[in-house]
Amino acid sequence: MTRKFDVVVLGAGAAGMMCAIRAGGRGRSVLVIDHARAPGEKIRISGGGRCNFTNIHAGAKNFLSANPHFAKSALARYTPRDFLDMVEAHGIAWHEKTLGQLFCDESARDIIRMLLSEMKAANVVLELQKQVTTVEKTLDGFRIGTSDGPVEALSLVIATGGKSIPKMGATGFAYDIARQFGLKIVETRPALVPLTLDPNLLEKLSPLSGIGVPAEIRHGRTAFREALLFTHRGLSGPSILQISSYWREGDEITLAIEPDLDIAAALKTGRKANGRQAAQTVLAEILPKRLAQFFVESRGITGHLADLSDKAIDSLAGSIQNWTVRPAGSEGYRTAEVTLGGVDTSELDSKTMQAKAVPGLYFIGECVDVTGWLGGYNFQWAWASGYVCGESL
Ligand SMILES: Cc1cc2nc3c(=O)[nH]c(=O)nc-3n(C[C@H](O)[C@H](O)[C@H](O)COP(=O)(O)OP(=O)(O)OC[C@H]3O[C@@H](n4cnc5c(N)ncnc54)[C@H](O)[C@@H]3O)c2cc1C
């Protein structure tokens, strides 16, 4: 027997659950289907287990999309404060870590429990470990073939996320459905991902593995000032993850280590105070010792500070604060936090997320070509796009 619902949501992630809560709360019969064993797996592992669930500064400026205006409507209609109201109503303790990033005090699982309890209150049916085999348009809705029989729905919401971390069940399903219905896709690529280096540079930098420093990383006119981490594969840390969303193969990035400090001035002051000390000694007061040693050795500097001209000092400081690197690649979808690109926003109504050419079909969350910076923005997009969609069903 074919079961019938007003709404079927494919994907029990952040966006799908929020959409189901809103649609169910408005009296729609809603079925959420996911092939995973548990809902909200990415929520569970997010923010180091504490879920950076939103960012109080979230606005369209914090998102990458072929149409930078598309996200404005949803973000304005469901704000970080709206999500925070739900978090607080469930008694979940939270804190602001840095740069407007809000985290749970205890565990990301609190957010999943909250969403499940809201879904229950809205009479949403959740079915896990179920495969979706086919999606067909019918006269008045959709027929979804699943591993335990067909389901019919007036509206079908695709909330299956992007391709990041296939090990966790990520698939290109949303893009396949979009293509099936003739919708355009903006080319997808891994984003918020560590960058790798060619073997020569990697070998040179290998003594630095494990070091973290404040940095500003630049790519063209885009710059992020957050921590930089040297790893055994290349470069990581928040500043690198952020710039990775802008970087393309073959491009250079510029690293400014300790951007708030005037390293040239510190070296000159050190030279004046005690010209017999080594450059490395002064640098090691500012930078981790291994990093100080690396920069001095790679410039071939030996001897006393007094022997260094202003020009030599400026050049050494420049190698630290204006360091150009050409990454070889990225770690790919295996470790990327998000997928850049996705269902072309020109195909969707920004107020409802409905496909303009396919009434009743909706795309929400990460599968849409709206990608946030690191720092709670991607969840805010998932909540906001899910909410406005649920509101329209
Ligand atoms: C390690 C990590 C940490 C992160 N930390 C943060 C953070 O702290 N803050 C932040 O804002 N963002 C964070 N993100 C990004 C954030 O998790 C995503 O942007 C967000 O989860 C996207 O929500 P979504 O609902 O669109 O997709 P998802 O949460 O990916 O949900 C998609 C769901 O669809 C299901 N699915 C996929 N394919 C199928 C299929 N074929 N059939 C049935 N079901 C399917 C999946 O099992 C999944 O449950 C992090 C991401 C990662 C990987």
From TrEMBL:
Domain RsdA/BaiN/AoA(So)-like insert: 189-338
A Pfam family assignment: HI0933_like
Alphabetical list of SUPFAM superfamilies matching this protein: FAD/NAD(P)-binding domain (SSF51905), HI0933 insert domain-like (SSF160996)
Cofactor: FAD
Residue span(s) of domain RsdA/BaiN/AoA(So)-like Rossmann fold-like: 6-391
Domain of life assignment: Bacteria
Family annotation (Gene3D superfamilies): FAD/NAD(P)-binding domain (3.50.50.60), HI0933 insert domain-like (1.10.8.260), Translation factors (2.40.30.10)
Keywords of the record: FAD, Flavoprotein
Listed name of the protein: Uncharacterized protein
Source organism of the structure: Xaviernesmea oryzae
